Amino acid sequence: MEDAIAVVDFGGQYTHLISRRIRSIGVKTHVIPHKMLPQTDISIYRGVVFSGGPASVYENNAPTVDMEKLRGKPVLGICYGHQLIAYLLGGEVRRERAREYGRTELFLKHGCRLFRGLPDRFMVWMSHGDHVEKIPQGFETAASTTTSPHAAICNEERNIYGVQFHPEVAHTEHGLKILQNFVFDICGCRGSWRMEDYLEKAVAEVVNLVGEGRVLCAVSGGIDSTVTAAIVSRAVGKRLKCLFVNHGLMRKNEPEKVLEILRKIVGEENIIYIDASKRFLDRLRGVADPEEKRRIIGHEFAAIFEEVSKAYGPFTHLAQGTLYPDVVESGKSVGGSAVIKTHHNVGGMPQDFGMKLVEPLRELYKDEVRQLAEMMGLPRWLVKRHPFPGPGLAVRIIGEVTEEKLEICREASAIVEEELEKAGLLEEVWQAFAVVGDDKATGVKGDRRSLGYIVTVRVVSSVDGMTADYVKLPYTVLDKIASRIANEVDKVSWVTYAVSSKPPATIEPQ
Ligand code: XMP
């Protein structure tokens, strides 16, 4: 049996969070979409967690599981998972008139193993529309809240537990301790999931997979592709070639920084550097539509990729920095290999290059890739780097991409980053950059009035990029940014700050 836990996904928004939390305490996890449970060999796991989900157990086609298949395995149901356990084992679930949402106090009733070492009452995070009304035979109520009479249930003999609240979210007090009690005390996991072992295993797997073959890896300078290149390089040495395409839409000094790091990882002789700035800018001339810009960039990138793979090939393998959530989404999390995604950062590559995929990060979350990068001695700027869109500054320039607007966007963004760094805020925020369009406003420089560009500064906080808040920067920092941009960047007269959150806005302007 592996020292691992299966997290069965019923479509809940926190499924990957459950999985990440369990990994954070040293236990490997696999997320299994509930529909794939019948084909999954569950015997290799020490225990199973049922995630939450949007459905109601009584709905037609509500996701379900065969509890018989899990006989003998410890199970922890969370939210929908909790209701499903109660429902499938003979209890009753009731639709509530109002959803219970937010923090609420939990009162422990029964000293079950799940809550060992916890106080009698503490705050938990709830988000549900149904609750367990009657518990199944053989179960006891382990805890309640004022609105949920059976907020936690347990059958210690069968090692089955259910909680209505979310132990995985930070708002639940002692949430991590509850997960620890489950995976260590109840499931008997040892906690052997460590990045050092992962690295060794990943390198060995690449050696095995590639054999005597040759690998091509497109590196964007982002953390995923760079760490992928570093791992593959350890495995196959100079049989890896890294392709770095400069599309001319990068930030200030970025191509130089990416090249510097690539030299350290794979050596100058294994870098294929294509400065395609002119080619991309020529193709983008006169194009204002954002989707068309994206399409052109993707198409051009794919064409270059094809040219390079012919000129420097043949390559047997293509290395890609696919991460675990993408693997789960593509439905190939258990066995099999992932299909080539039309990955953002490589902008719509053709699906078939006749190369086999090498994806050494396919079992990792982003925060684990960061740990790996740190462990491998990659520089801090890379480890802490903000996400940067594949189409680069083209999505931060509204309207046509021109040399003039590119220069403004680059210089102004560099100032935003510098000032946030000085204020100790750069690593705190999710993204920080400048945007420029075609709108002009009047300025006075010296005694002369002149029309100049309007630059918009965008600084957002976010956990995963799905939702985001604009950052309430101190006025002193905003002041500094605004005056430096207006004074130091040529042809800019006004600076504005974007105060829209996502939703309804998006993070990037285009
Ligand atoms: P939006 O603008 O949709 O962005 O709120 C969410 C996150 O995704 C990044 N983003 C992209 N990344 N290629 C990428 O690789 C793209 O075309 C792209 N568009 C947006 C964005 O920077 C943010 O972190």
Give the SSE map.
Blueprint: E1 4-9, H1 15-24, E2 28-33, E3 47-50, E4 75-78, H2 80-88, E5 92-108, E6 121-134, E7 140-144, E8 152-155, E9 160-163, H3 175-186, H4 195-210, E10 215-218, H5 223-236, E11 240-246, H6 254-266, E12 271-275, H7 277-284, H8 290-312, E13 317-319, H9 324-329, E14 356-358, H10 366-375, H11 380-383, H12 403-422, E15 431-445, E16 448-461, E17 469-470, H13 475-488, E18 492-497
Parallel strand pairs: 1-2, 1-3, 3-4, 4-9, 10-11, 10-13, 11-12, 13-14, 16-18
Antiparallel strand pairs: 5-6, 5-7, 7-8, 8-9, 15-16, 16-17
Q: Can you describe what's shown?
A:
By secondary structure, this protein is an alpha/beta fold. The protein folds into three domains: 4-186, Rossmann fold (3-Layer(aba) Sandwich), CATH 3.40.50.880; 195-383, 3-Layer(aba) Sandwich (Rossmann fold); 402-497, GMP Synthetase, Chain A, domain 3 (2-Layer Sandwich). Helices cover 31% and strands 24% of the residues. It has 13 helices and 18 strands. The chain has a nine-stranded mixed beta sheet with strand order 2-1-3-4-9-8-7-5-6, with helices on both faces. Strands 12-11-10-13-14 form a five-stranded parallel beta sheet, sandwiched between helices. Strands 15, 16, 17 and 18 form a four-stranded mixed beta sheet that branches. Strand 16 (448-461) and strand 17 (469-470) form a beta hairpin. Helix 4 (195-210) crosses helix 5 and helix 7 runs antiparallel to helix 8. The protein is globular and about 80 Å long. 40% of the residues are buried. Mean pLDDT is 92; it is low at 332-348. The site of xanthosine-5'-monophosphate has 14 residues, from loops.
